[in-house]
Design a protein that fits this description.
mainly alpha; Helix Hairpins; three-stranded antiparallel beta sheet; 5 helices; rod-shaped
């Protein structure tokens, strides 16, 4: 009788103080709490948990991990992989430099050819205007037409090569800054994972 009265009094005190009675099993579930069935899932107060090994902990055992923790860990692993994939940055830089130098040389050659074709058009036009021989005028007109077409082709090629050179310059700059940026990304992701996977969360 005394035991029943004590339980009733405790329950009344909990309700009066605004504390809800929570099942003991539910109250124990949080990050880092041991569990036994791998991939088991449960929800506590709206938070989802999964029974798994924490990749951030060496020789980790099965524990409950929140959904937020698992998402943060996945993001951290992706950041680490991205950094590892760029380990051969020297080789990538060398290949990019070769492609860039080839594009720059092609642009210079195309620019020179374009300027020459334009000069020939101007010269041929002046010669045709000064000529009084109909046959010569016809030949010059045909030559000018071909040169004009060459000017159009070379002008288009120059535009494409100029764009390619600018793109390669951007890639070189991005590649040069990539190692530092990827390290920052990995550090940030790890900090978030450590926070969200902290015991008791």
């Amino acid at each position: 009788m005394f035991r029943k009265a004590s339980i009733t009094v405790v329950a009344a005190l909990l309700i009066a103080s605004g504390i809800s009675a929570v099942p003991a099993s539910a109250a124990k579930i949080s990050n880092g709490v041991a569990c036994t069935k791998v991939n088991a899932t449960t929800s506590v107060s709206g938070y989802k948990y999964k029974c798994a090994k924490n990749p951030l902990v060496k020789n980790s055992k099965l524990t409950w991990l929140s959904a937020e923790c698992l998402t943060a860990v996945t993001q951290y692993q992706a950041a680490v992989k991205a950094r590892a994939d760029l380990a051969n940055v020297a080789d990538q830089t060398a290949a990019l430099d070769t492609e860039y130098n080839t594009a720059v040389a092609a642009l210079a050659s195309t620019t020179a050819a374009l300027e020459k074709a334009r000069a020939q058009v101007t010269q041929s036009q002046a010669t045709m205007n000064a000529s009084t021989n109909p046959a010569d005028k016809q030949k010059l007109a045909t030559a000018i037409s071909k040169l004009a077409n060459a000017v159009l082709v070379l002008s288009g090629a120059k535009t494409k090569l100029s764009t390619q050179v600018k793109d390669l310059e951007s890639k070189k700059a991005l590649l040069a800054s990539a190692p530092g940026q990827l390290k920052t990304n990995a550090d940030d992701a790890k900090a978030s994972a450590n926070l969200l996977c902290a015991k008791g969360f």
